[in-house]
Amino acid sequence: MPDDPEDFESTQVQLVELQEEMERSFLEYSMSVIISRALPDARDGLKPVHRRILYSMFDNGYRPDRPHVKCAKVVGDVMGKFHPHGDAAIYDALARMVQDFSLLHPLIDGHGNFGAPDPSTGPAASRYTECRLAPIALQMLASIDEETVNFVPNYDSQSVEPSVLPARFPNLLVNGSQGIAVGMATQIPSHNLAEIVKAVIYVIDHPDAVVDDLLTIVPGPDFPTGGQILGREGIVAAYRTGRGSVRLRAVAEIEEVKNRSQIVVTDIPFQTSFEQIAERIKKLVEDKLIDGISDVQNYSSGRESRFVIELKHDANPNVVLNNLYKLTPLQSSFAINMLAIVDGVPRTLNLLQAIQVYIEHQREVVTRRSEYRLRKARERLHIVDGLLRCIDQLDAVIRAIRESADRREAREALMASPFDFSELQANHILDMTLGRLTRLGRTELEEESAQLHLSIAELEAILADRVRLDTIVKEELVEASQPYEQPRRSQFVIDPGEFSAEDLIEDESLVVMISRSGYIKAVPDASFRAQNRGGRGVVGAKVKEEDGISHLIPSSMLSKILIFSSRGKVYQLRGYELPRLERSARGTALVNLIPLQDGESIAAVLGTKDFPEMTDLVFITEQGMIKRTPMPEYARSRRDGLIAIDLREGDSLVKVATAQSGREAMIFSKDGMVIRFSIDEVRSTGRATAGVKAMRLRPNDRVIGGDMLDDDREVVLVTSNGYGKRISPRFFSGQRRGGGGVHGMKLTAQKGYLVAAEFVSKDEQLIIVSSNGQTIRVRAKSISAQGKIATGVKLMTLQGSEVISSVGVVQDTELEEPEA
Asked: Where is the active site (predicted)?
């Protein structure tokens, strides 16, 4: 190389910028990968390696009616003549065309182990497996020897290969394709053959068709592994634009076996495996991210799939199944990207464009085949006409041949006057056997001539008439596809959308407890066992000496907990958002869950699952005020809370209840006074209002509770010193709102003051909590039913200065004895 840069001008070396050379070289490499290896041709739906495998097997005679041959032999043939990229790539492509879990219609019939859906389970070595073309593959290669497609030189120009296959069915859409190129990828799902054929015929018959016209014919993909397709939104987007996402879900049923439930999976999403699912489930169970599963077993055999997920006896199968859909490959997404090679260029196709490309290909195939057959028919007719003329002047022909010295002279004599045969006709006459000279021979030639004239007329008509051509395309498409049509495997179901927490959480009964100092916890309802009234109870919470349980309500994991503060605001939490702790645990500070301000405490708590339109929230305050507001006003929540009631100075919220028109309210005071009146006397107002007077109180008296009257329920009154009684509301006659009420319980220094009034039915229980955190669960029916002047019976034994701090109502359940 010259040392002086100026001397480069006299050499063959060209100066090129490194960046330009890198860009050019990388572009060439990219296009080589895209066109020659990674992306399918939109006409036959095949990548070069798949096309070469099919053509090589066809060329070598490995057809459905012949014995299987070793895959290693096929791989060697393909690598030696057409695809010099290594035997592993060829065998992997061959194996995929055998797998019925990869292709909806496998193109190769295999013997041996060709792998499983699990990526870690590949096919056996090519020396152990055998293959031959599947019957449907012959439809891909039909008429390939009639000049229907172009042939190009192979990699070493020693042979030729087809640039595309005739493909008598739309393989790109029927079997789909996946591939990763340089800077682009394709992901085309498989479709039901019958549906695609109908769509192709529709487009042929309706040249002005649009994508939306096809959506009723092709509802969506049809995957080899079946499963369920959730909704059609992603499908519609993919068919309109070429890109979209389809959500797939396994087919699972819940079965009851020996007092336990099990989930049985029969179909799984495309490109997943039972092995992957089992491994993921075991990992989730080990990490305690999913509960209720005792074992998984795969009982699949052959084409029958049965994957069993065994559940624990107390597991909720629907909740477990929803968690499995969310956390495992039992539900997945298939990202559609319909990228294929069209006219040598990668293009993203929508459904209509993909069908149109295929139709144009078939028109070209039928046109080229008709031209080939027309040419061959004319050539044969020319020969037949010559043979008939020969028979007409047979004696003269024989004489001319006998007088000729050799074949060349005989041919020239036949080509000369008076015969005027063409060279082709003369050669056939010289090759004709004596048997063709009989009367039968002439009849056969005349029949053949007539048939050739008909064939030529038909072929000319096909080539001259586009409608006739399209009819041939449609007829052959139906003929080629009908033997292989099958029912749809993937079924459509309504898309439930993304799973909410409610779908993934079992709605377990809870008791929500809040202490006076602002600690909250959710305790499973089963943590409390009913005891005989008058007992000491069990430890309900570890609290400080000056603390105690101030609010206790029954709820559930999926309920909404409305927490009303002393400043008249309402905060909303879900049951599953609360700390779920043991009965004796202290709880979590509420300020960690809701933004309580300094000096703001909890006044009332209400649990609900919905906000009915015809239901109101009724607010009762310590100073005897009452307010009624439609419940939907409180449905929405904000991080910093909503205004629930406009409290007067010095007043505080005591009770929040639900009510409907026509109901009656009963309000109870600390001194044992009770008032009953119609809730219709309270006008419904908005959230930020103060309400009206409900009860006139004596000096130093205050409201301690209240609720809506229910004729099927009785009232349990509980005093501060642990006494209580059950009384029917019928003992209290109705009054006008704002009255002073009547005595509901005779109070003494021994019994203390009234701290709670709860409506109960006989099959419910009360959880009573003391200021020291002791709890007792008492069946309502075990509490004596008494009149207005009765002083009640002992419900809970207290010690020292201990008093009752809160009372809640829960459902009656049969529970095991808990530890004290």
From this structure: 128 (o-(5'-phospho-dna)-tyrosine intermediate)
204, pLDDT greater than 50: yes
| Contacts of the segment 421-427: beta carbons below 8 A, 24+ positions apart | 421/386, 421/389, 421/390, 422/382, 422/386, 424/379, 424/382, 424/383, 424/386, 425/382, 425/383, 425/385, 425/386, 425/387, 425/390, 426/386
Give mean pLDDT, residues 153-177.
93
**Please, are residues 551 and 544 in contact by the beta-carbon 8 Å criterion?**
no
Angle at 261 between CA 258 and CA 264, to 5 degrees: 115
Q: Are 224 and 106 in contact (CB under 8 A)?
A: no
Q: Which long-range contacts (CB under 8 A, 24 or more apart) does 425-429 make?
A: 425/382, 425/383, 425/385, 425/386, 425/387, 425/390, 426/386, 428/383, 428/386, 428/387, 429/386, 429/387, 429/390, 429/397
CA angle 182, 184, 188 (to 5 degrees): 130
Whole-number Cα distances in Å, 673 to 437, 723, 735, 768:
132, 16, 13, 21
SS3 188: strand
pTM for this prediction: 0.67
Q: Tell the burial category of 4 from Cβ atoms under 10 Å away from its Cβ (0-12, 13-18, 19+).
A: exposed
Residues paired with residue 723 on neighbouring β-strands, in sequence order: 794
Work out whether strand 251-257 and strand 339-342 pair parallel, antiparallel, or are unpaired: unpaired
780-797 as b/e, with b when 16 or more CB fall inside 10 Å? bebbeebeeeebbbebbe
Q: What is the DSSP string of 343-376?
A: TTEEEE--HHHHHHHHHHHHHHHHHHHHHHHHHH
The answer to whether the beta carbons of residues 805 and 523 sit under 8 Å apart is: no
Three-point CA angle 235, 115, 50, nearest 5°: 65
Q: What is the pLDDT of residues 347-389, one digit of tens each?
A: 999 999 999 999 999 999 999 999 999 999 999 999 998 888 8
Report CA-CA distances (Å) from 275 to 116, 227, 307, 327: 10, 17, 10, 15
The amino acid at residue 459 is L
Which whole-number Å values give the CA distances from 631 to 33, 613, 616, 628, 685, in the listed order? 64, 7, 5, 9, 11
Tell me how crowded residue 124 is: count the other CB atoms within 10 A of its CB: 13
Asked if 310 contacts 262 with a C-beta cutoff of 8 angstroms, the reply is: yes
Residue 262 Cα distances to 278, 456, 504, 727, angstroms: 14, 68, 17, 48
Distances (CA, A) of 464 to 172, 437, 453, 468, 470: 29, 38, 16, 8, 12
Angstrom distance (rounded) from CA 248 to CA 230: 6
Kindly state the helix (H) or strand (E) to which residue 228 belongs, with its residue range.
strand 228-230
DSSP 424-482: HHHHHHHH--GGGGSHHHHHHHHHHHHHHHHHHHHHHHHHH-HHHHHHHHHHHHHHHHG
Indicate the residue type of 201.
I
The Cα 701–Cα 721 span in angstroms is 18
Q: Kindly give the pairing relationship between strand 602-608 and strand 549-556.
A: unpaired
**In contact, 618 and 669? CB cutoff 8 Å:** no
Residue 819, burial from CB neighbour count under 10 angstroms (0-12, 13-18, 19+)? exposed
Structure letter (DSSP) for residue 35: I
- What domains can you pick out in the chain, each with its CATH number? 21-193 (3.90.199.10), 251-329 (3.30.1360.40), 354-484 (1.10.268.10), 507-811 (2.120.10.90)
- 723 in catalytic set: no
Using CB atoms within 10 Å of the CB of residue 347, give its burial: 0 to 12 exposed, 13 to 18 middle, 19+ buried. middle
Supply φ then ψ for residue 364, to 5 degrees: -65, -40
62, 91, 128, 576: which is the annotated catalytic residue? 128
> What is the reported pLDDT for 816?
38
The enclosing H or E element of 203 equals helix 193-205
Per-residue pLDDT reduced to its tens digit, 515-551: 767 788 888 876 655 555 555 555 544 544 334 566 7
Q: What is the DSSP string of 147-160?
A: T-S-EEE-TTSSSE
